[in-house]
Amino acid sequence: MSEEPRPETNGSRSPTLGFAIHGVVAVLALAVLNWLIATKVPMTVGSEGEGEMGPYYLIFYYHFPGAINCYVFFIAVMVFGILFLRDGNPLWDARARVAGEIGLLACTITVATGSTWAKSAWNVWWDFTDPRLMSAAVMWLTYAGYVVLQQQIEEPNKRRRYAAVFGILACLNVPFVHYSIQLIGVASHPMKITADPIVRITQWYGVVAFFFLYALIYRWKLERNLARDAVEECLVTVRKIEEGARA
Amino acid sequence: MMNHGNAAKWGIWMLAMIAIAPGAFAADEDAADATMDRLMLGYLLVFILLVGYLIVSQRRNARLRDDIEFLKRRVDEL
What we know:
The structure holds 2 protein chains of 2 kinds. By secondary structure, chain A is mostly helical. Helices cover 75% and strands 2% of the residues of chain A. Chain B starts with a helix and ends with a helix.
């Protein structure tokens, strides 16, 4: 057996350096967002149909980025699913699996912050007549099902195919949630906040800042999953060798 | 089956985020101002802790993958 030395972790640059830089950029972006929320945006704004909303509207700057980022990751699940079905590369399935989990995390934050806002604005934790709330809840359940599907089927090729198809179909939720109010009719969900340009800038800046954080978590989880898959592959090989030795 | 340890960790992070939701229960504007500063600093601390954990954990992941690649090569030689 050759005495190959154990490799160092990288080539000319550590793969963790890029990750650390990404982390620092994410923290700085979120620090700027928090500074904007604490010092620059107005403490109250008006909205069509609701009048003045009061300081509780500030949760919007975490709620809105959660919603947009969950759309982004759910669309990524669909794209990775299509790419997997096209060429069968299991790496696409690995990416889709993690994108589904991160999208579900963002969706959970959206629903939770939305519910907190609803309690302050309407004095109820949930409005069962609001089409956006209900369609977002259905979207959450759909992707929770996707995450469970990815964990439950033992046979890897079957699991990857089923998950890819499910992920493509599940993405139909995204446009439905986004246009639910226009499609179904009037709702209590605030549609347009009338305010300074700083509100628009901060809400969209928040999307970018939170995207850095979600993308960091995505990279971390993908690395862990790929490591786990590599361990399982090694174990399968070792078992085959042991069976061969016994036979 | 889903890893309950990881689910618990994510649950804790999400609860930390939700528990200090900005300005949701502020009674008046002056109190809201002071509350907002504290809440934004609190959230920033949560983000720093989360990112710090991810960076430390990812270094371990990278070493683990290199060890696994080395192990696979040795197994292939057998």
